[in-house]
Amino acid sequence: MKIILLGAPGAGKGTVAKLLTDYDGSVQISTGDILRAAVRAGSDLGKEAKGFMDRGDLVPDNLIMKIMESRLQEPDCRKGFILDGFPRTIPQAEELKNLLSKLGIKLDMVVNLDVPREIILDRLTTRRTCSNPDCQEIYNIKTKPASPDGKCLKCGSSVVQRDDETEEAITYRLETYNKKTAPLAFYYEKESLLKNFLSISSTDTVEAVKKALNR
Ligand code: AMP
To answer: Which of 4, 52, 102, 165 has its CA 20 to 30 A from that of 171?
Structure first.
């Protein structure tokens, strides 16, 4: 499959993307994951991106397009890809359109995950992440707690709150989403690619997406 996943931070794009990769082997491409890896590695890209990310701001379009232009040409994308967290702005969507047409790639669908705001806020403020870069297991203080002393159940490293998952950063990220990313739904509706999914349970959503793809 060749799809874009749209949805606010905390809508479950990462979880849905992972389940879809299990379905047909398409690769998940998360610009957030790529950027976090660059920050950890201390690369030039990471140094440029960190300040924007910590504030909950978007990283400039030119940096993102540089990443995606090379990523989409890697051999593992031939079978299919699930874009998770990209595009985030209308200019990114326009540039992606040009890039895909240059590469001769046609999108199957744009999946818009629609999740009530209370659920999103609750998910994001209760989420915790293993601090070990090679593990990064996700926890939730209510539904999937780490060990009583805050250690990862898989690798024993400390489980922490991401810098961009404090209440202040989350509020800002949601505002940024409404201003800059939500308009992409209209953009892809006009392109006749948009499909909306009310998404409370990720597994139900994945089943609905599979059905829509096979239609
Ligand atoms: P995510 O994990 O997708 O929520 O991304 C985490 C952070 O990385 C975002 O808050 C942005 O600062 C940055 N980011 C990820 N993807 C993009 C993108 N396509 N455009 C701009 N910034 C991005």
So the answer is: 4
Q: What is the pLDDT of residues 1-12, one digit of tens each?
A: 999 999 999 898
What pLDDT, on the 0 to 100 scale, is given for residue 4? 98
How many whole angstroms separate alpha carbon 90 and alpha carbon 87?
A: 8
Ligand 1 contacts CB of residue 184 (under 6 A) = no
Please tell me the distance between residue 213's alpha carbon and the centre of ligand 1 in angstroms.
26
Which of 48, 16, 22, 19 lies closest to 35, judged by CA? 48
What pLDDT, on the 0 to 100 scale, is given for residue 118?
A: 87
162 noted as active-site residue? yes
Residue 136 pLDDT grade (very low, low, confident, very high; cuts 50, 70, 90): confident
- Ligand 1 and 172: CB distance under 6 A: no
Q: For each of the domains in the chain, give its residue range(s) and CATH number, in order of start.
A: 2-26+79-214 (3.40.50.300)
Torsion (CA) 14, 19, 20, 21 in degrees, nearest 10? 90
Among residues 36, 123, 127, 128, the one annotated as catalytic is: 127
- Which amino acid type is present at position 84? D
